[in-house]
Amino acid sequence: MARNGLNSSSSRGEEFTKSKINKENLQKISELLKYLKPYQGKFALGMVFLLLSSLTGLAFPALIKVMVDVAQGIKPDYGMPNSVNTIGYLAFAILFVQAFVSFFRIRLFVEVAEKALADIRRDTYFRMITLPMNFFANRRVGELNSRISADLSQIQDTLTTTLAEMIRQIVLLIGGISILIMVSGKLTLFNLSILPIIVVAGVFFGKAIRKISRQAQDKLAESNTIVEETLQGISNVKAFVNESFEANRYDKSLREVVKIAVRGSNYRGGFASFIIFCLFGAIMGVIWYGSILVQQGGLSVGDLLAYMLYSVFVGAAMGSFPELYANVQKALGASERVLEILKEENEPISINSNDNEIKDIIHGNLSFQNIHFSYPSRKDIVVLDGVSFEAKAGEKVAVVGPSGAGKSTIASLILGFYHAQRGEILFDGKPFKDFALTDIRNQVAIVPQDVILFGGTINENIAYGKLTASDEEIAEAAKKANAHLFITGFPEGYETVVGERGVKLSGGQRQRIAIARALLKNPAILILDEATSSLDSESERLVQEALEVLMKDRTSIIIAHRLSTIREADQIIVLDKGKIVEKGNHKELLQNPEGLYKHLSALQFEV
Question: Is 367 helix (H, G, I), strand (E, B) or coil?
Fold first, then answer.
């Protein structure tokens, strides 16, 4: 049941959450409206066209009234023409003006909204990818992608459609009611007398319907969870011959959905019947009472017709407000989530960085001095506890130890993905904080165990190490990485598309492309994070040869499970539970019969 509850929440979370329209939330969304400032001239012009479009729309019932009155021989007021043909020509002229201004109103609003949203998307995306790693550790990729796509699309719809439509309907509502009062105050009072009844009924039925809809969504989510769990564990279902049990469980859940839906239909049916009675009753009442006024001479036929048309305008405007209001609430909710990202403190990286130009050169000397570190999401667990070591320029330093000892954390600290709570990391004797973060990352390369490539071509993936690299430089890096041969074996060669995350390539091929990418970057410090641990023997040999080329004349931090790959390391650091328990080269560490390195070697049949 706990699992079902979680999935129900998840299911509802995929919908747009609404925020209350109040002063505080409107101030929040106003922070996004600053993106309209560069386009305020076009936005203002669009607003002018919007008002013109709405006002010309209000003119048509008046023209129809005059046309009917003139046809009956009643002389029009306000200097209007007394010819039916002239009034008809005037109506078409106004219609042409309305069509003209409507086109430019839509054109301008869409242009302004699209450009403003593009700016928001750009800033949100850049802010997102420059946030510290801890931010991503606590969020799902789908959730973050939803901020860029779904949330901003909701804001876009509000800016392009909802905002304009709301202003338009307000103009029609205020203008329509004003004209209704001018045409006939008695009929208007008669119309407005039933409004409070409809509003009260709408509030009552609306709350009941929303409550039942949420219950139905929860129950449906539970039934969907049963399907999802059953299909994911279909082998268990079949092995325990529980097909009938699962089918009955699903059927029981669906019956609950049906029961709730039927209860909801009672409210919906009652509300629909009430609205139909009130709506058509109001129309019938207006025509009835209006006809009496026409008989008494207090109203012309044209006035009654105009009144009916303006009533439709007012009714349509009032009917559109609940949906428009809900859309604004959704936009407020979406804005809050986008602003959460825009307000997060990001890493000091500029969107206008000049081709990753390096200001402070690192020669390769690296020093950890009494580093204490815990991940921000797990502050009670000490990952590194007083770690100190030194790697001189050009040296190979291996880091070994059991799983969870803190080996990969060292790589994350070197790259500045996280920062130590105590202690200092030095590059060439200077503290980490004295360097620009971009300078450090531009001069440190990592070849991870699980290489993830982008979905483009091999050429693009290798060039990611140096965006300005020529085809000759890319090919040279691939040759050094033992990758050129298999790349040219593909029909498309370097233009071969690797597929999402590089799925079209084998593990060894992906590793060699990652090595080529690192070679092209030409880093001062190289991190190999278990780069050969998941490869077969032949792939490991080819990758190891490429790694030897990559490690030549540069500081290398080798994080390894396979101790056979680090025998030639200048220094081996043995980590256990976040502490350095041994240091030395391969021969020195093997001479300690009680040492952890000796024990790990024995487990891997290295002795």
Answer: strand
